[in-house]
Amino acid sequence: MRTRWLLEYHAGVQMESLRAGVSVIVPVYKTTKTLPLLVADVHTALADTQHEIILVDDGSPKETWVVISSIAAADDRVIGVRLGRNSGQHSALLAGVRLANHQFVITIDDDLQNPPGEIHNLLKAIRDDVDVVYGTPLVIAQKGWRRWLSWLSRVLLTSSFGADNGTNMSSFRAFRTSLRSGFDAHVGPSVSLDSLLAWSTSRFASVRVLHDRRHDGSSNYNVRKLFRFAIDTATGYSIAPLRLATLCGFTTILFGIGALCWVFSRQIIFGNSVAGFPFLVAIITIFAGAQLLTLGIIGEYIGRMHFRVMNKPTYVIAEIVSSSNDELN
Q1: What's this model's pTM, rounded to 2 decimal places?
Q2: CATH of 2-238+312-328, one of 3.40.50.2300, 3.40.50.720, 3.90.550.10, 2.60.40.60
């Protein structure tokens, strides 16, 4: 009965008319101390605006859900959502976006690096010719390697759907909730919210915002996760890697033809051939590397197709908590 109610509630939110105001979506993972501060700051920033805050627990330890559920039970403007397992930041965002009740959505991280006081700057930038606005930090309060990898991920994302200002993207966004109609069907695992938004619109913009240091703990993103996200984005929403594999194949063919011409011309002109073993090893290594790269790229696409065929869910909502539980049950 609980699962059936969750599905009916999820579908009902999708179909009902949106109310004026703002839905603030916060993906939460292993965070406890900053959540009460974040909620209070959002309420202060949107004091003159109808709003709701949706805290999505992305498979955190139970301490995190205890904090989220207690906040949601005491505040009628907060909804707590617990996913059944860790599905990734963008999957958690998608779950929150699909539950949003207001006309505009704000996505913000749980670490208070993006001050909620900047929300109005994002909302003001949404005009008739703009559907999505990113808050681009004036100064990024992150380590050098993290800034570089994040920039690389944004470049790959830009090449995936051709947005002019892709390098200005960030996790601090504002967009029209109606855009979710472009990705209301099953989208499979390892999603990218930015790519999904690009399915619905090409009208993106960015504004400069403040970016503070983390108030507690450290980032859950490391080199491996950032690299994985970049690969998922590139293979999930673009055929650019396949074109790269084709280009790599043509390049190695041209290199092989050039090497063959060099061997023959050396024999004809100088009367001696190229030293055998080192040259052979170098050629085999280059061609083997190109083949393995191509197979790896094709394998990524086949893997994503495999998960789509299995209908692996993007996320599973295990529980929803609100102070108005009587209305939800």
Answers
A1: 0.75
A2: 3.90.550.10
